[in-house]
Amino acid sequence: xxxxxxxxxxxxxxxxxxxxxxxxxxxxxxxxxxxxxxxxxxxxxxxxxxxxxxxxxxxxxxxxxxxxxxxxxxxxxxxxxxxxxxxxxxxxxxxxxxxxxxxxxxxxxxxxxxxxxxxxxxxxxxxxxxxxxxxxxxxxxxxxxxxxxxxxxxxxxxxxxxxxxxxxxxxxxxxxxxxxxxxxxxxxxxxxxxxxxxxxxxxxxxxxxxxxxxxxxxxxxxxxxxxxxxxxxxxxxxxxxxxxxxxxxxxxxxxxxxxxxxxxxxxxxxxxxxxxxxxxxxxxxxxxxxxxxxxxxxxxxxxxxxxxxxxxxxxxxxxxxxxxxxxxxxxxxxxxxxxxxxxxxxxxxxxxxx
Length: 354
What we know:
This protein is α/β, with parallel strands linked by helices. It is about 50% helix and about 20% strand.
């Protein structure tokens, strides 16, 4: 939207300058000067507009880039101004000095517009060819957190921000929002409910003044030929120097290989769970048999799976176990233990029945 506003301003300014110059008495009275000004203004305007419109779309989100482009455009215009006089004298074009000045004005406007447009649509670095100098992007403040579809649908990232665990701005790329909409429009009921839940959570985060959520419409030229939302996410995160928030285990591994910082919400949630030390006693209810012959499966209140040796025949009973070991992965935490005794309340119930 901003670039189109800038393009509209350029068209109005160039038309105003062209009208003011051709309507003057001196230029209007001389046919050669009149048409020289008209065709020069129209030709340069069409050329730079098409050149700007057809070049790959990039972006520089800093207002300082506009002033930098304006300064460079003015310097280039000043350097090229004598070239107009040289062309007029070399080819012996019989035009008035006022017409030459009008051509210089329009050339300066076109150059400034073109330079500013290029700077506004380049990446967040500036390169000079001679000598070659690169200004690396410096991120001020907290690095943005880029959300993928799984993190939005999961919803725990919203609770983390509401608790002020993080204060970095949340960025949702447009292609992630489009994928979320496709899931919400799916014919599968489960997928449709997940997509709608994600849209509701995103809307709640936008309405929360504590959470800074940005929908980013940047179209990166390098990602136009990339297939798959995951690959686009990795390239987008690297481009904005952010961190990728996800619950997708495979995406986390691929992003780490591509040297992208990842916040796996499952890893964070697991790290906040209480640690079960070997030898510690826990009370659980056995809900189903395990994979091995004598194993039973139970769960803690936070959802942690507990595998108990010697508990296959105690399904539906509350038991006391002794922790032998624990295993923590991105998929979750597992605790291993062995059956010690029945819980006291079950013993009481059993005695009452007896």
